[in-house]
Amino acid sequence: MKARPVHCGHSVPPRPAPAEMAHFYFLQRPSAAAADAPARAVGRRERAALRAAEEEELRPANYLDFCRRYGVAPTPASSDTVVYYLAHLKRSGVTVSTARQRLAAIRHLHLRRGLEFAAGAPPDGPAPTPVQPDELEKLCSELGLASPGTRRVIQRFRVGADLGLTGPVTPRHCGNNRSADLHAEAVSAAVQAEVEAGVTRGPFTVPPLPGFRVNPLSARVKDNGRARLILDLSAPRGDAVNDLINPDQCTVRYASLDELARLIFAQGGAGTRLFKADVRAAFKLIPVRPDQHAALGFCWQGQYYYQIALPFGCRVSPRLFNEFAELLRDLVRVMSGNNAVLNYLDDFFGVEPAAEPGAVTTFSCFLSLCDRVGVPLAADKLAPPATRVEILGIVVDTDRMCYELPARKLLAILACLRDISGRRRATRRQLLSVAGRLAHACRCVPPGRAFLRRILDAAYSVAQPLHRVRITAAVQADLRWHLLFRAACGGYELVVRHVAGLDNGPADALSRGDIARFRRLRPHAAARPTPLPAGWADCVADPVAGTPALTHVVLPYHLMRWCSRFIIIIIIIIIIIIIIIIIIMYC
């Protein structure tokens, strides 16, 4: 007998032995004497009642109820799968006669009459997409970009994308994650919107496809109140859909602000114009092959759905869409004659020199390209050419040649710090959330990365996201980012440049947070950081109006520590007094 597998929602025992499977399937009597004796004692009337019960189980409604209750996909299946679930019924306390009745129903439906769908057969075919593959292929041929790679990308819009599953998907029924239940109204609206858009099919009262898998559903609520549906294809651990996808086929290289800075200098430096555009519902533009739809199912409020376009939560979705995005990027480069165009997944941005009024810009070429091939753009995120544009969450100003942290992001970071700085312990997930926000702020002030070292070390000192970590005085000190946040508010950027003839190795090690390398280069350096001179305070810009002072964020940690010590001492004294009183009373 194999080891017990881990299942979501139902505890299914290990698969029975072949002999036991054959016994169940052909409705033979139990081989054990204890189970065989009651069967011989059944009279003629009881046998007739058993046959009547079996006929009742032949009704499709009862069969479909069995499928919903025990996670059996209501589709033509092999005897191996049928007997596997029937063995579970017998081991879970169901009587032998009930198990035989259900087995007869499944055997009859699967092998004689076939399945009668209560909800009707689902439509077949890939998801509808606004992208026009014929027009895209024609444009690639005109611009000389036709290649096997581009043809493979275009073909996905016709027949659907291959998720790269290396094996069959196990039918399961997993419960939804807590984030979906907390935002039930927003999730219901999002599910209905996807059904109306044609990228999700449903609802069905029963699992609608062969080998249907119900994956956990998660949700992330955006600032506008809408929910983004995330199909958790990484659960359960060890038997997830993502486990069947080779991680080596999912690597993606994203553009960065450093590449954008190099393009700004290449286009003339100060005064160059920036533009930005965002593809709307990016993953939903690419359909999935129909034979893989059963792996993308989920259940919401008792109804079954499945996604037919690239889902959020699939390991290979970013790579599949990024190949299409890179094709759009190459097309606009050729059309405009400007190579200063980048993309970060569905975010497109670029640089163009200051042009005369009426001149054709790279931005206008990109808009015409998307209109021709049918790529929808988010109107609220379009940024026409300007010298000050927010790109990847950072405000880039080419007039002042600096990066700035938007005020709303600064307020969010301060609120996060205010929440965690008053705690003595925090979970690993909370510390990593703070570190992620601070790492984003380091785009404006790169030396701030050195302050992340101890925060990350504390977060990775435990294994699980919900494990709690003690916030030491060193971590509290790193959370006091006066210089970093004031510089980010004022739009300062510290630029480290190499001076010929000088050894910049120690400075480079510090800027990258490589403390071990710095110690090797400067073994006699002070162990503690050098305090900021008092005279430097005048050089630091004041924070943005409306942001709270950072002195209110940092709580008196040392005062809390001394108060806790004082309370412990008082408790010890009280215990000693009680012991003395008890001794005096008994003496």
TrEMBL record:
The chain crosses the membrane at residues 566-586. InterPro entries: DNA/RNA_pol_sf (IPR043502), Hepadnavirus_pol/RT (IPR052055), Integrase_recombinase_N (IPR010998). SUPFAM superfamilies: DNA/RNA polymerases (SSF56672), lambda integrase-like, N-terminal domain (SSF47823). The keyword Cell inner membrane does not apply. One of its GO terms (molecular function) is DNA binding. GO terms for biological process: DNA biosynthetic process. Keywords: DNA-binding, Membrane, Transmembrane, Transmembrane helix. This is Gag-Pro-Pol polyprotein. It comes from Amphibalanus amphitrite (Striped barnacle). The lineage of its organism: Eukaryota, Metazoa, Ecdysozoa, Arthropoda, Crustacea.
